[in-house]
Amino acid sequence: MAQARLLALTPNQKRAVAVAVVFGGLQSANQIRKWVKAAQNKQKELVKDIHGKQTSRSHSAKIAVNKVFLKRLYTILSICVPGLFTREAFLVLVQGVLLVSRTLLTDYISRVEGYCGRALTSLEFANFGRGVIDFALLGVPAAVVNSGLKFMQKNLELSFQSRLTLYLHKLYTSNRAYYAASTLGGLTHADQRITEDVEKFCFSVSDLYSHTFKPLLDVLLFTHSLSRVMGYKGQLGLYAYYMAVAWLLRALAPPLAAMTAQESALVGSFRAAHQRLVAHSEEVAFNDPPGGAAEQLILNQHLARLITFSRLSSFQRFLQQIADGYFVKYFASCVALLVYAGPIYFMNPASRGDQGQLTADYIRSMRLLQNTSRGVGDLIMVYKRMTSLAGHTSRVSELLEQVRKLLCCRHCLLAASLHAMA
């Protein structure tokens, strides 16, 4: 109905509608930009106190995917995977084999689907039945591989968490580093960093491995398979589109790494406020009722700050996911259809083949193009996972650095004391 009304407009009316749509879109984009800027400024105000306490440490450095992040990540991963002949290295290898198997199965399933489509349009029901049986049999290893990927990813995450946490326990409980951290300062929210932040880091690493290796393999294999049907030239247009989208989304993306680290810091601050109340419960109870009311006010302030920050982060992620979903998924599908249909449209009608062959090629090409688009889209979304991982890496790395610093300072103080006594 709307399309019919649009076609019924005069050329001048169509131009007026186009100008109104463009102008309205620019105004909306400008207003959204102001909202995002206001949200980021508000977040800076909420974490000002936390950053004020940590400016002398490495947290004052900008949290981003840079050389510092890569160096810290390598240090932590060398702890998680200490050698080639370890359980963690074996799990990484098995996960890689499963990812390769899933890609190969997807490629073969696309061939079976194309075969079934050709048999059906050609009314070859015997061949269609054989194709359905093949599809049902392929579903068994496909289901096993899909479940195995989730199982191995969880095992990889738990192995990393166990290895890293045991290493931190060893450092944290050596030479009374825990006492120096709690009494002398220098390490904030150690309990949260050892438990929650380590868990989030290990999950992010295992998730990043699955969502980087498989999409890359999908793109390489499916591009080669598609070249048999549509060549490489048409696919170059699709990849050029994705490169432009990657640049655009990276420019529009909020500071995810900083938001992740700041939100973790606010959670730690809220938890520390409760721990402080438990530690000083006798003193607060002695001064109650005003003492209890004051502590309630402090706890409510910490909670309100955390909730407000999380809501502002959620708002920015909501806007980003709209852009991600449209440009990476829906509009990319339109580009993929044009890439496939363009060569057929300009092809000599005598060279297009019969209806059955066109149907088989279409079904297989669409499945491969969808998987290729999904793989490229996942590779574009890697920057989101990398920035989130950068925030968790910063928190865990600061824990490692500060514990080692406390141990070093304690050894220096002990040596100085012995020297003074001598």
Q: What would you say this structure looks like, in words?
A:
- There is one protein chain.
- Helices cover 87% and strands 0% of the residues.
- The chain contains 14 helices and no strands.
- It has helices spanning 2-7, 11-46, 48-54, 67-80, 87-121, 125-172, 177-184, 190-230, 233-252, 256-279, 281-286, 290-346, 355-380, 382-421.
- Residues 55-60 and 413-421 have low confidence and may be disordered.
- The protein starts with a helix and ends with a helix.
- It has 422 residues and is an all-alpha fold.
- The protein is globular, with a radius of gyration of 29 Å.
- Helix 10 (256-279) packs antiparallel against helix 12.
CA radius of gyration: 29 Å
| Stretches with pLDDT under 50, minimum 5 residues | 55-60, 413-421
Helix-strand string: HHHHHHHHHHHHHH
Give the rounded overall mean pLDDT: 79
| Category from helices, strands and their pairing | mainly alpha
Question: What distinguishing features does this structure have?
Answer:
mainly alpha; 14 helices; disordered C terminus
Brief summary:
The protein has 422 residues and is mostly helical. 87% of the residues lie in helices and 0% in strands.
Annotate the secondary structure layout.
Blueprint: H1 2-7, H2 11-46, H3 48-54, H4 67-80, H5 87-121, H6 125-172, H7 177-184, H8 190-230, H9 233-252, H10 256-279, H11 281-286, H12 290-346, H13 355-380, H14 382-421
